[in-house]
Amino acid sequence: MKKKRKILLLEPNYSNKYPPIGLMKLATYHRVIGDDVRFFKGDMKDFVIETIYEKCLAKLTQIHQKVNWKLYEKEIKLYIKTKKNSVLDDLLNEKEDQPIIKQWLEHYSNYYKKKEYAKLENREWDRIFVTSLFTFYWKKTIETIEFAKLLIKEEKNLMVGGVMASLLTDEIEQETGIKPFKGILDKPGVLDDNDLIIDDLPLDYSILDEIEYVYPTGSAYFTFMTKGCTRKCAFCSVPILEPTYKQKVETIDKFNEIKNLYGEQQHLLLMDNNVLASPKFPEIIQEIKDMGFKKGATFIEPNQYEIAIQKLKESYNDKAFVNKTFKLLNEFVNKRLKRNKKVAQEFYDILDNYQLLSKATIEKENILRSYDVIAPLYEKYRDKSPKQRFVDFNQGTDARYVTEELMKLMSEIPIRPLRIAFDYVGMEKQYVNAVRLAAKYGVKELSNYLLYNFKDKPEDLYRRMEINIELAEELKLHIFSFPMKYIPLFGEDAKHREYVGKHWNKKYIRAIQSILNVTKGIVADGRNFFERAFGKNIEEFKELLYMPETYIVYRSVFEEAGLTQIWRNEFRAIKSSHLWEETKEILNKSEFKNLNEKTSNSDIVTFLNHYTISRSDIQKKDIEVENIRKQFNQLIKKDRFVELTLTYDFE
């Protein structure tokens, strides 16, 4: 009989909006072939402490079974991490067998402090997979790989994949000694001697309940209808990640499998990079309809408690489904039954009776024993209201492929929002045509990324935003724009977020980010807000790019204090003088410390002092900023699709 291997899936501790699809497929693969799988996202030191705590818990329970050591999880972990005597005293207080308990607590703290877990004989993971995302998460990703090297039995079984791994393959190998996997796992026998194609497997949604991190996608199917792209845009990684365009990917079977395994999901998030390029687009739309996503489609949440119970009976990822059950039951009593105090108290008493109120006491056995009592109440009072379903081509559609026929087809599914790429101003004609067709066929909510800092000029960005304002006004549409700063795909500049394009400078970029700071990167439709934020015309916009960041963000405060107008008068005077070139050189670098070291001209220093004024120098509240922030925070909170579109600059 084949020995079970221990498989660890790691996502680095960065903020991201979509779950790691590659790791979800790998989880399915290893479970299918009988391995044990664990997923972690977060600080790797916390992961090590978690695994040491589990060993310590087992030992303490063996020594002293009368004590529920889970109730002391926080203290045990703290002692393992710090070895503080005050924590130890609390743990030993009035307990039998104190010497032996103390001995083992000290043993496990030393095990952590002396990195005993990294000794070859103590390593327990047979295979570790580290995923990667944006290249500018270089530092966090490398740190995760290096830590994983301390946990793997054999380094050859540490595998790194994902976006950054495919783009900076040689750099990762040079830095870590680990050769990453490039591309996707779309061939049989890549990892083991079998016929399974990992990329074709359904996603293991259960691993998402193993961790504390919550992805904002909510209830959704994640899938592809096509793979790759027909374009070769210089700013895009898709030609490297998915070099072969596949006009149609078999999806319906995987869709049905997910539905059977984890229940119906509300939305459909399609990860296609250029779905409109497919000549099989009519078939794709029909398949989306067959999945239950016709225009006006609604969704009733399945009984997630029953699904969790079934998985626990099958012993399918107990860790995840114990966590999920705990969350479901506590949300049910605290939120769903909030207005029905009598039933809420009854349900609370049941949870208390079966020790299901605390993570320290909840166990698989308790959950299953309480099923007959809880199930009828949960089914009776759970939310069964129909909710709208939406389809989101979340990587965007290509305006250059949009025709009346294709837009008519898209209008037959509940698409929201329709994302149309507007990468450069030269696409204006095709982009405007696509938006007009969307309006014609009743698609009223649109969204797009506006790439900047590439080969464009600042005025190109302004014009694209302005076009969206004009179209929204004319066609009565909602168009959300998300300016997204270009970062190179390769080389040292890919490893951070500091790259400055040919027609840009640091001051311009900081100004754009300051303008968007208040709205978390969203440019909403509405001329008044747009003109207030970006200027009434390109001339005003260009002047605003040179305004001090604090004056930009806290516009009302500094205007009322008179400082903005003083700056504006001085800026215009210096710009028309012989001092401009020297001043501009300093401004463009956006570094305003030690001004006397940057110039010997006192007039320039006096002007640049505006850039050293901080928000704390003005005590008055900026009500305008507070109101706008509140408005956009509410928008993000209530609209998952807006939240999913926020760029990395505003995580």
Give an account of the 3D structure.
Its cofactor is [4Fe-4S] cluster. With 651 residues, this protein is an alpha/beta fold. The chain has three domains: 6-185, no CATH class; 304-384; 418-426 and 440-650, no CATH class. The protein is 47% helix and 8% strand. The protein has a four-stranded parallel β-sheet with strand order 2-1-3-4, sandwiched between helices. A three-stranded parallel β-sheet has the order 5-6-9, with no helix packed on it. The protein has a three-stranded parallel β-sheet with strand order 10-11-12, covered by helices on one side. Helix 1 (21-32) links the parallel strand 1 and strand 2 (36-41). It is globular. The two termini are 47 Å apart.
Give the topology, please.
Elements: E1 6-11, H1 21-32, E2 36-41, H2 44-63, H3 73-82, H4 85-92, H5 98-113, E3 127-130, H6 138-149, E4 158-160, H7 163-167, H8 169-176, E5 220-223, H9 238-241, H10 252-262, E6 267-270, H11 281-290, E7 298-299, H12 304-313, H13 318-336, H14 341-353, H15 364-369, H16 371-381, E8 387-388, E9 391-393, H17 404-410, E10 418-419, H18 428-440, E11 445-452, H19 458-475, E12 478-485, H20 506-517, H21 527-534, H22 538-545, H23 549-553, H24 555-560, H25 563-575, H26 580-589, H27 595-598, H28 602-608, H29 623-638, H30 640-645
Parallel strand pairs: 1-2, 1-3, 3-4, 5-6, 6-9, 10-11, 11-12
Antiparallel strand pairs: 7-8
Helix pairs in contact: 2-3, 2-5, 3-4, 3-5, 12-13, 18-19
